[in-house]
Amino acid sequence: MKTRRRPYSEQRPTDLGGGVWSVPVPIPGNPLGYTLVYAIESPGGPVLVDAGWNHPDAWLALRDGLDSAGIGVREVRGVVVTHFHPDHAGLAGQVREESGAWIAMHEADAALVRLMNELQDREHRSFQADMLRRAGADASEVEEVTAQRPRPPAPPDRELHDGDLVDLPGRELRVVWTPGHTPGHVCLHLRDADRLFTGDHVLPGITPHVGVYPYDRDDVDPLGDFMASLEKVAELGELETLPAHEWTFPGSADRAMEIHAHHEEKLLALASLLAREHEPLTIWEVAGRMTWNRPWAELSPTMRGMAAGEAAAHLRALEVRGVVRRTAGPDRVRFALRP
């Protein structure tokens, strides 16, 4: 079944057939509008793929949506979180409190969740502020970006690894580790139905955010990981795709390679941008010269922070390929095209 993106007000829980339901859960104040939470039925009880944002309205939508599918929240066996972001992991803890369900996520994201829960708000703000200043953000932008912090998600009970089978009696739901959007992002291959739950890895109309945090790390390559993960998904063949946002669609492999090509084009454009510059640029300056869905001047400080993370990921990928070099100063990192 294929559905199209509609405003949240027009969304309804949907029986996708084969013992799978989609439940739209709102994301208050976010242009994405909602997360599609999936419920997979099994003889041992239903398992959710993601849970939605931690907000009272979102909780009511999840609870009532499951009810309309004939699934009580207290029946839920477990929640598989595709990645730790709050619009996916936020309500997993409340589901666990209601039902005793387990929460599972990849070990790499589980480690980040533990760290987030250990950090005090003051430590988190200090970390963010230092990262933004080193990237070239001004004081007012640093202040606004660090003003708010989403509540950390609940730590998982179980850690997943590439190739694991999820605890879903009578069905075969296999973990496909797809790092990039987060270090521990996973897709889930429901092999008994030729379906792929893609979280934020493969979306039908937009591309997920891929950033480096802190911006100036030189020991990771999330964009390179993301593009390799897209190839990995394409190798699974064309599967019915059930993403966490927008709409379900056929053809996971084709869409994965479209996204791959998009980032190759973006890397070429960034290399051309740097070739026109006479001096090395800070990450913030690079982000300000790149093309986004709105002009840089119209982006909020928070969106500029995300854009800087994505610029950093593309710079790092070019650095790994030997196309650009970095210069570390006392308080800034700058990038230039290699001669």
From TrEMBL:
Q: Which SUPFAM superfamilies has this protein been placed in?
A: Metallo-hydrolase/oxidoreductase (SSF56281)
Q: Fetch the SMART domains from UniProt.
A: Lactamase_B
Q: What is this protein called?
A: MBL fold metallo-hydrolase
Q: Which residues are in the Metallo-beta-lactamase domain?
A: 34-245
Classification from the root reads: Bacteria, Bacillati, Actinomycetota, Actinomycetes, Streptosporangiales
Q: Which domain of life is it from?
A: Bacteria
The record ties this protein, via PANTHER family, to:
ACYL-COENZYME A THIOESTERASE MBLAC2 (PTHR42951:SF4), METALLO-BETA-LACTAMASE DOMAIN-CONTAINING (PTHR42951)
Residue segments, region Disordered: 138-163
Xref: Pfam families: Lactamase_B
